[in-house]
Amino acid sequence: MADDNKTLKYARYAIGEIILVVIGILIALQINNLNSKQKELDKEQQILISLKEEFNQNIKELNFDHQLNLSCINAILTLLNFDENSNFETRTIDSLMGQAFNFATFDARLGVINDISSSGNLELIRDSKLRYALNQWTGELNDYKEDVIIRREYWINNVSRKVNKLLPTRNQDATMHREDYKRDILIKAIQVPKSNYIEFFTNLEIDGMLFDYYLNQSFVTINEESIMLFLETTLQLIETNINND
Question: Would residue 221 count as lying in a domain?
Fold first, then answer.
């Protein structure tokens, strides 16, 4: 009977030890899970802060490029509606041509979004609406890229070639003042007969070229406005998910 009591006592003790060990393991696992979860939350915040910086930079650069392209469109419109019978100065046309040729292309910064997409860290972002928007970001640029290519190829193959036959392209350099085009030397303007300018405005082929160029540039600016709306809307989602504690 005494031996049976000892055995029972040892069994109870052993079971108690096992239970304590199991409880200890469960607590350790719980702590580890909590630590892992906290690390994921911290990583998410780091990603959001980096995305905010990248999106702000993209908005700034897109706005700069968009304003240049709007000035370009306005110059083309002025040229299309220009009255060649008016008493104009040739340098006015040179200035307008310089603005019309002074277009820009938005080159989006994608370093952060590409990194989190390739690493799988995009899944750390808990907001499903934000995750969806970020997944759409590079796709938003596709239409824009196509229109930019069309504009560039049309300009190379049609615009500059036709203009150079009548007007001095070098005279446009003096009007190309922009923050991303700094230079210490300006190209000296030259004079060509005013009749060249009049022929430029009365030539039906050139008129059609200017109109096509206007359309190409319009598609680019329309896409820029769409991209800007996307960037600003997505940035709001990013900022909403950033903890400011």
Answer: yes
Task: Identify whether 9 is part of a domain.
Answer: yes
Average pLDDT over residues 188-196: 90
Domain assignment present for residue 245? The answer is: no
Neighbours of 72 (CB within 10 A): 23
How many Cα neighbours within 13 Å face the side chain of 229?
6
Q: In whole angstroms, what is the distance from residue 54 CA to residue 107 CA?
A: 12
pTM score: 0.82
Boundaries of domain holding 101: 2-240
Q: How many domains does the chain have?
A: 1
Query: For residue 214, what are its two tokens?
Result: 């206007």
Q: What average pLDDT does the chain have? A: 87
Per-residue CA distances from 33 to 30, 36, 45, 53, 177 (Å): 5, 5, 18, 30, 58
Helical H runs in the chain? 2-80, 90-101, 111-119, 128-154, 160-164, 194-202, 204-240
Is 110 in a helix, a strand, or coil? Answer: coil
Instruction: Write out the two tokens for 37.
Output: 């979860």
What does the pLDDT look like over 81-97, one tens digit per residue?
Answer: 999 888 989 999 999 99
